[in-house]
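Researcher: I've got a protein sequence and the SMILES for S-adenosylmethionine. Could you write out the 3D structure of the bound complex as structure tokens? I'd like something to compare against our soaking experiments later this week.
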Amino acid sequence: MNYDGAARHDHSSRRNAAGRERNRGFGEQRNFSAAAPSQRKRTADKARLTAFQVLRAVSDQDAYANLVLPRQIRENRLDKQDAGFATELTYGALREQGLYDAVLQLCVDRPLSALDAPVLDALRLGAHQLLSMRVPAHAALDETVSLVRSQIGMGPSGLVNAVLRKVSRQTREEWIQQLTEDVTDESKIFSTTYSHPEWIVRAFRQSLVAHGRDVSELEKLLAADNDAPVVNLVALPGIGDLDEVFKLGGRKGKFVPDSAYYESGDVGRLNSVRAGVVRVQDAGSQAVARALADVELPSGTSDEEWLDLCAGPGGKASLLAALAAQRGAFLTANEPQPHRADLVEDSLGAVPQDAWQVTDMDGRDYGKDQTERLFDRIMVDAPCSGLGALRRRPEARWRKKLTDVAELTVLQSELLDAALKAVRIGGVVAYVTCSPHPAETVAIVEDAIKKHPNLRILDTAAALNSVIMTAPTAPGHTFNSGAASASTWTGNSIQLWPHVNKTDAMFLTLMTVDGPEES
Ligand SMILES: C[S@@+](CC[C@H](N)C(=O)[O-])C[C@H]1O[C@@H](n2cnc3c(N)ncnc32)[C@H](O)[C@@H]1O
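Model: Sure. Here is the predicted complex with S-adenosylmethionine in place.
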């Protein structure tokens, strides 16, 4: 195997403040192999082969890289170092595909769409090594050509060799400069520089404004999406602990209680994770679940029945169920898709069985019988575009479409409506998305405010800040318009951000109903 880079996994030493490799100076001697592609070795190293296999599954079968990669790492028996290299290569090539394709297009004499898909995948892997990893150019080139020879065939290896040589003639920064020098539209420039589809750049700008932040943060937000997120763990309260995690190098979480950061490789090897008492969950998700569980209900009222309306695959449900169990409450975790409902059951397995049940209804059917307001606390973690969790799913940004957002908003509104009818008077509903898009967040709550005169927004910032351990999070959008009694509302929402809170971009609004619908 030839990485030729002793410090290749040391992010701190090879990245500058913007999270990029400090590239070689222009004109630095590149020591390419003198051998023609046909004379080079015909075997692929295991780490690059693994990355290639994942990229193929993503392009060919619409697979999810975060599911295929661990399987492929195990199948190819990669050691920890190779697994780290394969992960960085796979995720980097997928995230930055937009930028690499633009560069490759300048180095290929035909449209990229005319190339065979496996060849294009190999070129993207080569481009990532050359432009963003501390892999010497000769190693990036030789090993990618060997990969092509062993996996695709002799034919395309000459083309790959020639194209990657061209790519290697400039640094990443120089390519970006060339690609953007005549462009005046900021969204287009950021789209290339930070490798996001243009519509997502625009959506993020809109989102920052809608949630009261400065648009000048846009570049930081886009850059944060390209950083590999640290795995967050949570010990289910009263059920698990983090002793094993800390023993194996995990660090104490700074955002929420009972949490940890884990950077020591495959979490699947932890007994506590396998037993389901410690779970992988973004710190933002933990925070919104805890905020719902801890927000005070009017004194003297019941706090026994909790509902997670959209529970699959069960991340928040397991934390809510553990908290419910500690307090003698009961969680109904609802998920209509059968295979996801199975995942919810699995995720609840470590929580005492008398504290939860799983239902498989269409969430919109809850609260249909308005005389039965059953629930004291309801989580509406609505199906959403997932624009706030792009850093965790490297290929996702290229699959999503602007129309996805519009398609989901009707369902989001209907689910929130159902929750507002199923919650008892004085109970609390949390509306949550892992998207900051205003159409999925602010607009849905505004719409509910208009439709439900009995709805009152709670002080969401206060509730969230009381469960987190860092500096208070600034409130996001303030709901102060849209209905007759609006002036009496003092509440607000919370929008978490990867570049500010180091969490997924979770949106949360807590609300209650003060009386029956008709009032
Ligand atoms: C954002 S995910 C929920 C994530 C989950 N709360 C967690 O923390 O693991 C949204 C879920 O809503 C489910 N869903 C879709 N349509 C639904 C409906 N009509 N009623 C209830 N849930 C629905 C989806 O299948 C998906 O599992």
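Model: Residues 402-422 form the longest helix (21 residues). Residues 231-280 form one domain.
Researcher: Great, I'll pass this along to the crystallography team.
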